[in-house]
Hints:
The chain is mainly alpha-helical.
Amino acid sequence: MSERPVVTRFAPSPTGYLHIGGARTALFNWLYARGRDGTFLLRIEDTDRARSTPEATQAILDGLGWLGLDWDGEAISQFDRADRHAEVARQMLAAGTAYKCFATPDEIEAFREAARAEGRSTLFRSPWRDVPEVDHPDAPYAIRVKAPRAGETVIDDVVQGRVTIRNDQLDDMIVLRSDGTPVYMLAVVVDDHDMGVTHVIRGDDHLNNAARQMLVYHAMGWDVPVWAHIPLIHGEDGKKLSKRHGALGIEEWRAMGYPAAALRNYLARLGWSHGDDEFFTDAQALEWFDITGIRKAPARLDRKKLDSLSAQHIAAMDDASLVAEIDDFLAATAQPRLSAAQRDGLERAMYCLKDRARAFPELIEKGQFILTERPVTADEAAARALDPVSRRILSQLTPHLQSASWTREALEGILTREAEANGMKFGALAAPLRAALAGRTATPSVYDMMLVLGQDETIARLEDAGRV
Ligand code: GLU
C-alpha cells in the first residue's frame, strides 16, 4: 500500500435525509482519516438536478455536524465541477482512450432489439469505436470510453476480497453525453482523483460501479484508490433496511435523545469490531479503527445494544457536558431551553439522575424535581399518595427539618423516626415525599432530592403539600 497520507471522503447524494447507513459510511471514513493524521473530505453528489434539494444537503450537513464528523475544507459540490469532468472526457478522446459515438437513441434501441431476438448480449457495441476522425459526420456525438473487450477487470477490495469482472460484460460506457453533460460515473472518478482520495470506503451497493469506474482510471492512467465496499445494514429482523425497518434519518435518532458519542460508538460497531469491545471512547475508536476489522456479512440494527451503549456513555460523561447536550437536545426537538437556574440545578442533580438512564428524556423526566418550580403540581399517579393522612405527616415533619443539619445521615434519622412515630415503614412515607418534592413517582431517592434541593426549598415544598 502507498505511503501517501490518507485522504478519505464521504460523498452523499442530497436526495433525502442522512440515514443510518450513510452516517456509518461517513463515520468509517472519518475514523480512518482522523486516526491516521489524514484528511477527511465531503463531496455533495448533486449532479442529479431533479432529485437533489438544498434541504437534503442541509440535513446532511446538520446530521454530520451533530455527530461530530467534521470535514476538512469546504464541502465540494459535484455539479459545480461539471466543466472539469467534461474536460477529462475530452482528454480521454485526445489520448485515444475514448471515442466519439454518433449512434442515435433509435439506433441503440434497434441494436438491442436485434441482440435480444438473436439471443446475444444486449450490451451496446458502438460501430464508431474504430472509425477514424476523417469519416465522422458533422452530427452530435457522445464520448464513450474504449473499454477492453478481452480479459478481466480486477477489483482488489479490502473488505470483499478480489472481485473479478469479465471485460466482455462491460460496455463502452458513455462519459460525456451528446448534450455535453458528463455522466455521474465519470464525475465520481475525476473528483476522487482531483481530491487526492486514497481510500474509497462506501456501501457495497457501489461495488458494480467500481468496475466501470476502473475504466476511467485506466483510461487516464491514474492511481486506483484502495477500495473498501462495506456491507449494508439490515433491520433487526435481518431484512434489508427500509423505512419500515427503522431506516430513520439521523435527526430522528437525535430526537430520541441519544448522545452523539453513543451513536458514534454504536455506528462504529455496526459491521466493524475490535475484539470483544462494545463500549469505547472516540479516542479508542480512532486508535483501533481499521478497514481490516470490517466484516463481510451485513450488520444488523440492535436497539437494545444502542440503549446499553448509550447508558454507558451517559454514565461516563461529565455532568456539565451532559447538561449542555440536554440543552442542545431540547433545542433540536423544539422544546423550551433550560434557564441558567435549571442548568445549574440539573448539573448538581446529575449524579443521582444518570444511573442507568438510556437517553436524555429519561434524565429530564427523573430531573423534573429540580427543573420544576414551586408550587409543584403532582401528576395523577403521584397525587394519589397525597391523602389527608400523608399531608398531616408532611406538615409534622417540617419543624424537625428546620433544625436539622442537612446531611444524608441526619435526614435518614429524621425520616425514619417520623415514620416509626406514625406506625409506618419509611417506604410508606416515600411516596408522599416524592409527590411533594417532585410531583412524580419516578424520581431519584428522597434523600438525594432533599440534598439537591437544599433545606429551604425542601421545607417550602413540604409545606405547600401539607397545606390542605
Ligand atoms: N453518492 C453515492 C451515494 O450517496 C456515493 C458514491 C460514492 O461513495 O462513490 O450512495
